[in-house]
Here is the input.
Amino acid sequence: LERVAQLDLTVLVTGETGTGKELVARALHRASKRAAGPLVVQDCSAIPRDLVESVLFGHERGAFTGAHERRPGSFEQADKGTLFLDEVGELESSLQPKLLRVLEHREVRRVGGDRTVHVDVRVVAATNRDLRAMVREGTFREDLYHRLATLRIHVPPLRERREDILIIARQRLELLAEEGRPRRLTRADTAILAQYGWPGNVRQLIKILE
Here is the structure.
């Protein structure tokens, strides 16, 4: 992460749900030359289908019903900083060429607009899906995949890095203690944590500790 952070290139972070892909993106931003700029987090799976283009690229006043004023999209909001596109594998095929164009030319055209706006943004994308398999199936553009995966970081599931379980657990308990909820792990606790399979990964571990 320290090496990748210094390279102002697009990064694709892969891994199962709950492994900490957003934390990776935040760490890359903090350690990069863009740390003083904004970090904009956008979950592509949480945007209504009819609003994805507007949310990402912005819209002009009157572009559609309810567009009462000009609104910059996620790319413009992240200018001079980092844009984290979570669950990028959920983007519909009709939007993929538009995203590719922005990544290649670093300019956006707002919905309902007739001019392009230059953006200086580093993109970190994440997915829990196998984009290469989606490319083979024809549901994800190959050129977009290669553009997103200029640099790739895979976050392994917690069951494959069991040495991290107690480190994460103790750190989380220290944070809880600062909130007035001191707790200690017994020997039995640590044995249970170390042996469990953690299908929900780090997110599940944190919720159980809380």
User: Anything to note?
Assistant: Residues 165-178 form the longest helix (14 residues). The mean pLDDT is 92. Residues 22 and 189 are 28 Å apart (CA to CA).
